[in-house]
Design brief:
This protein has helices spanning 3-12, 29-43, 49-79; strands spanning 18-19, 25-26, 81-85, 92-96, 110-111. By secondary structure, the chain is α+β, with helices and mostly antiparallel strands. The protein folds into 2 domains: 3-76, Multidrug-efflux Transporter Regulator, Chain: A, Domain 2; 80-110, no CATH class. The protein has a 3-stranded antiparallel sheet. Strands 1-2 form a two-stranded antiparallel ribbon. Strand 3 and strand 4 form a beta hairpin. It is elongated.
Length: 117
């Protein structure tokens, strides 16, 4: 890649390398992978730099959201349980969503929590 191209990408914020003490750019492996993707999108797909910037931004957002989903998944699994009264008064049992607890002489109770946002 031409040095002028790298400087332009730096100015646009597409790839911001670390700087050496003398001011030279120092590209990480992640930066190089991003540069290759920018080159591919530009040359093979014909996408302009504004479009590439948007794609890179959305890609970072998707990565963050996927990590957030994985972090929150255990909470969702716990929240998908439904509590109902058990065979003995005052004792609760857990049933999975979509299943029914056994009725206990008309004293069945189901606690439902809506999804929080």
């Amino acid at each position: 890649m031409h040095a002028q191209t790298l400087r332009q990408y730096d100015r646009l914020g597409l790839v911001v390398p670390r700087r050496r003490p003398g001011g030279g750019r120092r590209y990480s492996l992640r930066d190089v992978v991003t540069l290759l993707e920018i080159q591919r999108l530009s040359q093979e797909e014909g996408i302009n730099l504004a479009g590439i910037a948007r794609i890179l931004d959305l890609s970072k957002r998707v990565d963050w959201l996927e990590r957030e989903v994985e972090r929150l998944r255990p909470r969702a699994d716990v929240g998908s349980r439904i509590f109902t009264s058990g065979p003995t008064a005052g004792k609760g049992v857990i049933v999975e969503r979509g299943q029914r607890g056994r009725r206990d002489e008309g004293r069945s109770m189901v606690v439902w929590r809506g999804r929080s946002q």
